[in-house]
TrEMBL record:
Family annotation (InterPro entries): Prob_Methyltransferase (IPR053223), Put_SAM_MeTrfase (IPR004159), SAM-dependent_MTases_sf (IPR029063)
Membrane-spanning ranges: 24-44
Keyword annotations: Glycoprotein, Membrane, Methyltransferase, Signal-anchor, Transferase, Transmembrane, Transmembrane helix
Family: Belongs to the methyltransferase superfamily.
GO biological process, one term: methylation
Cellular location(s): Endomembrane system; Membrane
UniProt membrane topology term: Single-pass membrane protein; Single-pass type II membrane protein
GO MF term set: methyltransferase activity
Cellular component per GO, a single term: membrane
Predominant subcellular localization, coarse grouping: membrane
Name of the protein in question: S-adenosyl-L-methionine-dependent methyltransferase
Length: 418
């Protein structure tokens, strides 16, 4: 061993031979360093007998306790979420109807039972059972539903279409199927198409049970709703002029609207179509129209079918049973009015938008605006969809008592979205 001596004066560096004393000191220092490192290695790698006295162990123990607490909290949150979801399902009626209730019709029990898939588990969805399709709100009207399903199998169905419609209007839609035969009403005197579009038929081919009126003359003497005043008179009444002769600036002519459609108008959907006059006018122009109806105070569906056009027995709370982007034109009048809740109108408008193709037309026909708030709310909702306003008319009409009412009519074109 030696030491280094730096002589700055002459700029040289040279070794001096080490003494015996200095060598011993160096050996002692090396031994101390090695010993210290060995003890440190032992301290970190060994398992002390008393873990609780080691600071690192305390830290590890605290982290473990915190981890356990976090896991417990997460399990509690997950359990609470599951309980909340179950409560929501029970409140809204999404779960299966309680078939153990007293006076439950056997046919309802049989229909609602789950059935195994004939070929076993579906490989794509993992589903193993077929579940009956029935409206979730049926659970809230289970007594009426049980009454509806109480019939003789393979026998005649009860004359209860009005009960079925009451269930539909309460949100019990779709209704369960039944294994019975409905009453047959001979359809005598039907005319061939297109004569049938504007030809009255016998009152006897319609079902009048559950209705106040028992003939067409009675219906034509009443104003059933804003879109149907005398609308069953298709020979002499205003229906013969509707869509071809305007009575106000809000009345658009059907030929004027058809020329606005890009790529032509071939199929259309009519919401709340009265007695089917819109469909009849479109049929004269080789356009197929499906009319959404309910038999409110009149045999609407049967009357439309007798004219040779297509009625669809459906409430506006039901998702439209059509695929996306199907229709060239959708026509709606005051049937679009679903009450004072803006969310319901939003749901309906989004479903209308869903089934209307890009470039298709939405014809809003004489929609009644009782106040500026309703008109502005509808305007803002329409503008959210980005439709192009081809026609937009807000005008006044004088009703029966001589009071002025405000109506909105518009033809809107759906944009192409990315």
């Amino acid at each position: 061993m030696g030491s280094v001596s730096l002589n700055i004066g002459d700029g040289t560096a040279r070794f001096k031979r080490a003494t015996l004393c200095s060598s011993a000191v160096n050996v002692l220092m090396l031994f101390s360093v090695i010993t210290t490192n060995l003890f440190a290695l032992y301290a970190f790698t060994s398992s002390p007998k008393h873990h609780q006295d080691h600071p690192l162990h305390h830290t590890h123990k605290n982290i473990s306790l915190i981890s356990q607490q976090v896991s417990l909290i997460l399990r509690e949150i997950d359990s609470s979420q599951k309980k909340l979801t179950q409560m929501e399902k029970e409140i809204l009626g999404y779960e299966s109807i309680d078939l153990s209730r007293p006076n439950m019709a056997n046919e309802l029990k049989l229909f609602l039972q789950h059935h195994q898939l004939p070929l076993g588990k579906d490989s794509r969805t993992g589903i193993t059972e077929m579940v009956a399709s029935v409206g979730h709100s049926c659970e809230k009207s289970v007594d009426l539903l049980s009454q509806y399903m109480n019939y003789k199998v393979n026998g005649p169905c009860p004359d209860d279409w009005s009960l079925a419609q009451k269930l539909i209007l309460r949100g019990c839609e779709p209704l369960p199927r039944r294994r019975c035969f409905p009453k047959t009403i001979p359809k005598v005197g039907l005319q061939s198409f297109p004569i049938s579009l504007w030809k009255n038929v016998s009152d006897k081919i319609f079902s009048w049970s559950g209705l106040g009126c028992k003939n067409l003359e009675c219906l034509n003497s009443k104003k059933l709703n804003r879109d149907c005043a005398g609308c069953f008179d298709i020979v002499k009444g205003y229906e013969t002029q509707k869509y071809v002769k305007a009575r106000s600036k809000n009345d658009f002519l059907i030929d004027d609207v058809l020329v606005m459609g890009s790529d032509g108008i071939r199929i259309s959907f009519d919401i709340g179509g009265g007695s089917g006059t819109f469909a009849a006018r479109m049929a004269e122009r080789n356009v197929t129209v499906i009319t959404a109806t309910l038999n409110v105070d009149a045999p609407v569906s049967e009357f439309i079918a007798a004219r040779g056009v297509f009625p669809l027995y459906l409430s506006l709370d039901h998702r439209f049973p059509f695929y996306d982007n199907m229709f060239d034109l959708i026509h709606a009048a005051n049937g679009l009015d679903v009450g004072s809740r803006p969310e319901k109108l939003e749901f309906l408008m989004f479903d209308i938008d869903r089934i209307l193709r890009a470039g298709g037309l939405f014809w809003l026909d004489n929609f009644y605006c009782p106040n500026d708030d309703k008109k502005n709310a509808l305007t803002r909702l329409i503008e959210r969809f980005g439709y192009k306003k081809l026609k937009w008319i807000v005008g006044e009409k004088i009703n029966g008592p001589g009071k002025s009412e405000v109506y909105l009519s518009a033809v809107l074109q759906k944009p192409a979205r990315v």
